[in-house]
């Protein structure tokens, strides 16, 4: 990449929207993408509705996103609709992929041998997990059963991973190692963080605004705490992308510290 990769995420599942399950995959993915030098521009939570999934995937592709992650909806039940929605957005159908089918067989046998499941028969519901969009590739799920999927729609790489956090991480970390290595070969991410002692957010806001306007590539943000909890205020500066950004970050950091110190507050650097 000769520029920062733009990333979006679709978190699919009624259980997220009803509050029955708390999404942690987007938080983990945001950290991972930032560390690799990517820029996450949008995280959207949507229900298990076929038209909604297709519409949101299509909209991301139209925005020219480099990577679109989806989380959830890859299982054997009738409400697992993510891959069908992605296929509709791509203008193609879904079909049983022989490699995906072999992945299923391998994992069913693996969990049978461990005594976790009682039979290895590939029922129609189980075979559904090997039915993926045409012109896509399955991604091996080392800790679960349903494979992930990787495909291109226009210029957008769409990565579909399971919703179970352990499976989600396994698919993204292991199956996409080469893909990330190629995409983020020049990427990096840097951050600086300070604590302002006895300084309220309103008092340091003019300094933060001045730094943000002077260095728009750097995300400078004060992290407020609930009133009465602590008189301290954390300020974090982050920058990601390609090339050497450290000199710019250090200069902005020094100006931030000087500006806050000039207001009469003491600061403490944090790792």
Can you lay out the helices and strands and say which pair or pack?
Elements: E1 6-12, H1 14-17, H2 25-35, E2 39-46, H3 50-62, E3 67-71, H4 82-90, E4 94-96, H5 98-113, H6 124-127, E5 131-133, E6 137-139, E7 148-153, E8 156-161, H7 165-175, H8 177-183, E9 187-197, H9 201-214, E10 219-223, E11 233-242, H10 246-262, E12 266-270
Parallel strand pairs: 1-2, 1-3, 3-8
Antiparallel strand pairs: 4-5, 6-7, 7-8, 9-11, 9-12, 10-11
Helix pairs in contact: 3-4, 9-10
Précis, in short:
The chain is α/β, with parallel strands linked by helices. The chain is built from ten helices and twelve strands.
Give an account of the 3D structure.
By secondary structure, the chain is of the alpha/beta class. It is built from 10 helices and 12 strands. The protein has a 6-stranded mixed β-sheet with strand order 2-1-3-8-7-6, sandwiched between helices. Helix 3 packs across helix 4. The mean pLDDT is 90.
